[in-house]
Every structure is written in structure tokens, then in C-alpha cells.
TrEMBL record, chain A:
It is found in: Nucleus. It comes from Selaginella moellendorffii (Spikemoss). It holds the Pfam family Med22. Its main location: nucleus. This is Mediator of RNA polymerase II transcription subunit 22. InterPro entries: Med22. Keywords: Nucleus, Transcription, Transcription regulation. GO terms for biological process: regulation of transcription by RNA polymerase II. Transmembrane segments: none annotated.
């Protein structure tokens, strides 16, 4: 008696867990995106702050700092691109809604092609039959006819 | 001799220890006293000078220049000063002392401007280097973005047609392995006995790679090639053979245009899938032929070739040929004789196999118990193919027979009656006598609303070949002479074998011609009788003359037989008694026959 309920409850729990995992993952991705963007902006701001001309020692120090900030900017951009790749991969493997729609659309299109092909085949068959009748009538009612052996010999 | 003295270590040594345990340290000297103490520890005199001094003090005599002492003092002061300077320089370089104040000269305005310009230039150079670094990285990132957009766009388009899996442990990246696989395996609902094959196991997962431009490329597994199934039928013809150009199977061109990544990958995957299907069909045929219930005989079986006997004088050849390999080598093995279209046979096999797959999917996915599964026979691809091969062979024989008949018999013609079913073929056979011959060579004017006289000389029937059984339909009562099977008049169809078909048709035609000739002769006189395939003319007191039709081979031969006076009319008419004389006329045209009958009717 309780098994269907338990089964239904189990399915509902699985769905809820999956939904929670999805939300958590979505948040993690958003956080990653925000962190990368903030990182990028901060390092760029630091680079601009070091634009002031000071004494040589400080200038050398700031040069090293600018190199590091620039590499961090590039690193943040690369991380963002990897995030984009990951999102695209998720879209390839997890976008079931659009996949199902696409499959349904293709199935409908193939059904239509199937019926069109059948109609085309029927029409081709009718034309073939009519042409065959004409050709055979002409051939067998003509006075001069070649036997298959004579035809082959001519070839 | 040099003397080395060592200063005491800069350690705080305990001077005394009181009874209460308190340690007494020496007083620390102040910062000003430290250098003084260090200076005081300096000994400016050299040891040799000290010895010379001592010796001089002993030699002090009366001879002494009055200014000698001053000069010596000056020398000593100079040496002390030099020592001090060296000491200061040494101490300063070791940073034992800090220079608290240095008097530097004031920089000039141009020097200050130059210094600022130098610093600005160095800052500007560092910024330019960073800008170039960022530009290089931006370009490489842009290229990466383009590559990935092309790749993922193509992958998403491919995903609409194919099943994509991710290869674990490999990440997608530019110019390297993409980490994606195309799964070409069949769904679980398909009967495993149909798709189990060692050949196709390597084709199940196909790697998808990304080249340097980001385009998709499908990689064929090592050691595998795309193959095509070729089917041939061979039949030994008794009368003639004709070599026909074998129809080449359509080659599956591999589109290598790099600009069409998705379409080329799609094309290649489709070729691989078709190759898989062909290999599965081949495996299915091999399994079927090895079953004991198979109605075919096995001649030869190999890894990619199968020769079987589908029926009497019918051999079937199946070959798995690589697409790029020359097909001529495979064709030379086959003794090419008159062959049906090889492409249609391959299509029939493919369609049969697809039907079996679909039926297994429907059967497995249908809920509830399956009705009648124990009674139905499993679909046998080879059996159906053998039936088709035998049907085709029989159809070819019938067409060749009819061709020959039509050549030999004027006014006989036939036309194919397409049924569009694989195991049913039909032909309509017609025989009619032209109006000109019927009217004795005179054209007759017909009113537009005049009915066309229906004569008994018109003959029409339909030959229907179902699998290997030939039936003749549409006859006005079968003429059972020489025909096998059901023999009853008034039936619209009867069964006939292919070898007996010419004789059967000629008999029917001869009967029609005899009937027409009788009608023509009766108009001129009542002394004409008809007996099955002969017309008997009663000669006044002289006997009987009969014109007899004798179908033989592919034509109707005519005989003129004379029965002498005294013979029993009945016996003569029935042909039971031997004719007094007979004359072989051979195959005569209809107008000649009519003329003969007219002459006989008029003169006799």
C-alpha cells in the first residue's frame, strides 16, 4: 500500500535534490563569474593607479607591480573564457528542453518527408507505368524488332 | 715581527654576581663614546718604527739637525692622517657608521628636468610593454573565442542528429583533443541478436577532434574502413547470355572541405552508420545461412564475402567492399551474366533489415504480454531475399519467353503490369486480329457511334507471378490441354508452370484463330466444323480436309490433312484415324490462313 507513495515520495525527493543541486551549481557559476570580473577590474585599476611618476626606486617597484597586475588581468580573462566553455558544454549535455523540441521537430519533418516521398514514389510509379505501357506498345507493335541477342550483337 | 691583538667580543659578560642573584654588567658606553673607544684602540705606530725609535733613543748623539724633529713630526702626522682617512672610508663602506649629513651640490634646473624626463620615459616604456603584452593576449583570447564558438556551434548542430558523449579526463581545448565522442550504438530496446557483431564494436564510439582552426573533425578508428555491401545474382540462361554493365553502388564521397565542418562531419558519420548497417546485414545473412532451417545452400563464406545458392540455377554473391578500393577486382570474380539491378537488391536487404529492427523495437517497447509471440516465425532476411531472387529469376524467364513468343507470333504482344510489390509481378498478354485482316484487306468505314464488333479472335489474359507460382487470369474458360493444375472450364484463372507457358498461350491463341477462321468459313458454307484446334471441311464425296494448328516451340505450325472417302466423319473430325495425306504448312500469317480457309470453303 505504501510502496507507490514511497516511490512517489522518492521521486519527488530526487527531483528536489536535483533542483537544489542545480541552484547551487548556478550560484557557484555566478560567483565564479563575479569573482573573475571583480579580479579583472581590480587589477586593471591597480595598473592605472601606478601611472604616477615617482623616484626611480619606486618606479621600478611599480613596474614589477604593473607586470603582475597585467598577468592577473589576463588570468582572469582566461578564467572567464573557461567558464564560458563550461557553460557551453553544460548547454550541449544538459539542455534537454531544446533537445527534445528539436527531436520532435525533426520527427515531424521526417514524417512529412516520408509522406511526401511516398506520394512522389506513387506518382513516379504511375508515370513509369504509363511510360512503360507506351514504350512496350510501340516496341511490340513495331514491324522491325530486334531480339535481345541481335541487340547485344549490335552493341 | 707583527703583533696581532684581538678586541674583546661584543658580548655582555657578567662582571659580578651579587648574593641576591642580581648580575652586574659593565656599564654600556654611549653612542659617542663607542667610536672614541674604537679610535683609542688604534695604534698608529708601526712595529718597525717602534724598534727604530728604541734604537734611536739609544743612539741619540750630539749630531742632530735642529729641524729634524719637526720634519719627523710632520711625517708622523701625515701618516696618522692617512690612516684616519683609510679608517673612515673603511668604516663608512661597511656601514658601521651612518652618514647623517652629506653636503651635496644643488642640482641644476636642467638636471632636474632631465631626471624627471628619464623617470617618465621609463614609466612610459613599462606601460608600453604591458600594453603590448595585453594586446598579444587579447588576440590569442579572441582566436580562442572564435575557435570555441565555431566548435561548439558545430557540436550543437551535430547534436541534433547524433548522440554526443563526453570523454572523461579530457578537457576541450584549442588544437588538442576535444574530449567528445559520438555514440553510434543502437538503443537498448533493439533485439541484441540483430546488432551483436564484433565488426561494429569498434564503430560504437567515434572521436570528435578539434583542429587548429577550431573546426570539427570526425576521426575514423584505426584499422577500420568504410565498407559497402554489394549484392549480385547470377543465373544461367539456357538460350543466351548477355553481359551487362554492372551497376556500380553509389560511392560515398568523403567531403574534405575544411570550411564545412558540420556538414562534412555529418556526412562522414552518416557514411559510418551506413557502413555499420551494411556490416550488420552481412552478419545477419551469414547467421541465417548457417541455420539448419535455411532453405539456401552455402557455397563459400569468408570474412567479407558470402556465396549462396538461392534456388535452382540461382547464385547470390554478397561482398563487403571498401569504398576506396577498386570495385573491379570484386566484379571479376563473378561470372557476369544477365543480372537484375544490384542496387535494388541491396536496397531491399536494407529495407528488410530496418523493418526487423523497427519491429524488434516496437515489440520490446510494447507494454504487457506479447500476443502470439510463440506462434510467429522470426523474420528471416535471407529467406525473404531468396524468395525475391527466385521470383526475379522466374520473372526474367517469363519475360524472355514472352519476348520470344511475341517475335514469333504476329499480332501477339504483351505489356508489363507493375504491381509495386516485391513478390508479385504481372503481365497482360494480348492477341487481336487487325480489322484489315478481318475484313479481307479492305478498310471498313465505321460510324462514329458504331459499336466495334467483338470477335472471338481477341485474346487477352493476365499472367500473375506470385513468388514462384504463375497463374493465368482473365481467361474465358481454361483450355486444359497441356496445362497442369486445376483443369476446369469456366474458371477465370488457372495455374501454369513457366516451362509450359509458351505451349499454353499458343494453344489458347490457336484456339482463338481457329474460332475466327471458322466464323469466316461458316459465312461461305455450312460444311465446316470445328474441332478444338482444327477446322474440318467436308469434301463432297471425297473425304475431309482439315486445317490443324499445332503449337510447338514458340510458334504455331499449320498442317493440312486429307482424310479419304469412307473414313468415319467423326473419326476424321476427331483426328483419331490416320490421315491419308498431310502437308506441313509451317507458321502462316493470318491473312494467308484466311485466304486458305476461304479457298477451301469456296472450292470444296
Amino acid at each position: 500500500m505504501n510502496k507507490p507513495g514511497q516511490g512517489g515520495g522518492g521521486a519527488a525527493a530526487t527531483t528536489a535534490a536535483a533542483a537544489a543541486a542545480t541552484i547551487h551549481r548556478q550560484r557557484a557559476l555566478l560567483q565564479r563569474a563575479d569573482a573573475d570580473i571583480a579580479n579583472l577590474i581590480d587589477n586593471f585599476a591597480h595598473m592605472l593607479k601606478a601611472a604616477r611618476v615617482n623616484d626611480p626606486v619606486r618606479n621600478a617597484q611599480e613596474n614589477f607591480q604593473m607586470d603582475i597586475h597585467a598577468s592577473r588581468v589576463v588570468q582572469a580573462a582566461d578564467s572567464l573564457l573557461k567558464l564560458v566553455s563550461e557553460l557551453k558544454q553544460n548547454a550541449v549535455f544538459s539542455d534537454f528542453i531544446s533537445l527534445n523540441e528539436c527531436i520532435a521537430e525533426r520527427a515531424a519533418r521526417f514524417e512529412e518527408q516520408n509522406s511526401d516521398t511516398e506520394r512522389l514514389l506513387l506518382s513516379v510509379g504511375e508515370e513509369l507505368g504509363a511510360s512503360l505501357v507506351e514504350l512496350e506498345t510501340l516496341y511490340y507493335k513495331s514491324l522491325q524488332r530486334l531480339s535481345p541477342a541481335e541487340h547485344q550483337a549490335q552493341e | 715581527m707583527a703583533k696581532v691583538t684581538l678586541d674583546s667580543l661584543p658580548l655582555k659578560r657578567v662582571l659580578a654576581l651579587e648574593e641576591s642573584g642580581i648580575e652586574l654588567y659593565p656599564p654600556e658606553s654611549s653612542q659617542d663614546e663607542k667610536p672614541l673607544s674604537l679610535l683609542q684602540s688604534l695604534d698608529f705606530e708601526r712595529p718597525d718604527e717602534k724598534e727604530a725609535k728604541k734604537s734611536k733613543s739609544g743612539k741619540d748623539g750630539a749630531s742632530q739637525w735642529p729641524w729634524q724633529g719637526l720634519i719627523e713630526h710632520f711625517h708622523q702626522a701625515r701618516e696618522e692622517l692617512m690612516t684616519l682617512l683609510d679608517f673612515i672610508a673603511h668604516v663608512e663602506s661597511n656601514e658601521a657608521l651612518t652618514v647623517t649629513h652629506m653636503m651635496k651640490p644643488k642640482p641644476l634646473p636642467n638636471e632636474a628636468g632631465a631626471d624627471l624626463a628619464l623617470r617618465t620615459a621609463s614609466k612610459s616604456r613599462s606601460y608600453k610593454e604591458i600594453a603590448s603584452y595585453l594586446k598579444r593576449n587579447a588576440k590569442s583570447l579572441e582566436r580562442q573565442v572564435e575557435r570555441e564558438s565555431v566548435f561548439y556551434g558545430a557540436l550543437m548542430r551535430l547534436q541534433r542528429n547524433w548522440k554526443i558523449k563526453r570523454q572523461r579526463g579530457v578537457s576541450a581545448g584549442p588544437g588538442g583533443k576535444a574530449g567528445f565522442l559520438m555514440d553510434l550504438s543502437f538503443p537498448l530496446s533493439v533485439d541484441p541478436s540483430l546488432i551483436s557483431s564484433s565488426r561494429t564494436a569498434a564503430w560504437t564510439l567515434i572521436k570528435v577532434n578539434q583542429d587548429a582552426n577550431g573546426l570539427l573533425s570526425v576521426q575514423i578508428p584505426a584499422g577500420k574502413t568504410i565498407t559497402t555491401l554489394q549484392v549480385y545474382l547470377s543465373r544461367e540462361l539456357e538460350e543466351y547470355t548477355s553481359k551487362q554493365q554492372l551497376e556500380q553502388p553509389p560511392r560515398r564521397r568523403d567531403n574534405r572541405d575544411p570550411d564545412e565542418g558540420t556538414s562534412s562531419a555529418n556526412h562522414r558519420l552518416r557514411n559510418i552508420q551506413l557502413s555499420i548497417f551494411d556490416e550488420l546485414i552481412f552478419e545477419c545473412l551469414c547467421r541465417d545461412v548457417l541455420q539448419p532451417s535455411s532453405a539456401t545452400s552455402l557455397h563459400e563464406i569468408g570474412e567479407s564475402s558470402l556465396d549462396i545458392g538461392a534456388g535452382p540455377s540461382i547464385a547470390s554473391f554478397f561482398r563487403l567492399v571498401e569504398d576506396d578500393a577498386a570495385n573491379d577486382a570484386a566484379l571479376k570474380e563473378v561470372d557476369v551474366k544477365r543480372l537484375p539491378l544490384a542496387g535494388s537488391l541491396r536496397i531491399y536487404l536494407q529495407q528488410g533489415f530496418y523493418s526487423m529492427l523497427l519491429a524488434s523495437i516496437v515489440q520490446r517497447s510494447a507494454p504487457g504480454p506479447r500476443a502470439g509471440t510463440g506462434k510467429e516465425e522470426p523474420a528471416n532476411l535471407l529467406k525473404n531475399f531468396s524468395v525475391l531472387a527466385r521470383h526475379r529469376s522466374a520473372g526474367d524467364k517469363i519475360v524472355s519467353l514472352l519476348d520470344t513468343l511475341v517475335l514469333q507470333v504476329p499480332q501477339l504482344w504483351f505489356r508489363s503490369h507493375p504491381t509495386w510489390r516485391p513478390f508479385v509481378s504481372a503481365w497482360d498478354v494480348y492477341f487481336d486480329i487487325p480489322e484489315a485482316i478481318m475484313n479481307g484487306g479492305q478498310m471498313k468505314h465505321l460510324e462514329w457511334n458504331a459499336l466495334v464488333r467483338e470477335t472471338s479472335a481477341t485474346f487477352q489474359c493476365t499472367l500473375v507471378l506470385r513468388q514462384e507460382i504463375l497463374s493465368i487470369e482473365g481467361l474465358d474458360g481454361c483450355m486444359p490441354l497441356g496445362a497442369s493444375g486445376q483443369e476446369s472450364t469456366g474458371m477465370k484463372s488457372c495455374v501454369c508452370s513457366v516451362s509450359e507457358l509458351p505451349f499454353f498461350l499458343l494453344t489458347q491463341i490457336a484456339g482463338k484463330v481457329i474460332g475466327w477462321l471458322e466464323e469466316e468459313a461458316v459465312l461461305l458454307g455450312p460444311r465446316v466444323k470445328r474441332d478444338f484446334l482444327s477446322i474440318v471441311f467436308n469434301i463432297q464425296n471425297n473425304g475431309l480436309v482439315s486445317l490443324v494448328a499445332a503449337p510447338s516451340g514458340y510458334c504455331i505450325n499449320w498442317w493440312l490433312r486429307f482424310y479419304s472417302f469412307g473414313s468415319d466423319d467423326t473419326a476424321a473430325a476427331s483426328g483419331a484415324s490416320a490421315p491419308a495425306s498431310e502437308r506441313f504448312l509451317g507458321p502462316l500469317p493470318l491473312e494467308t490462313l484466311r485466304a486458305v480457309v476461304m479457298d477451301l470453303a469456296i472450292n470444296l
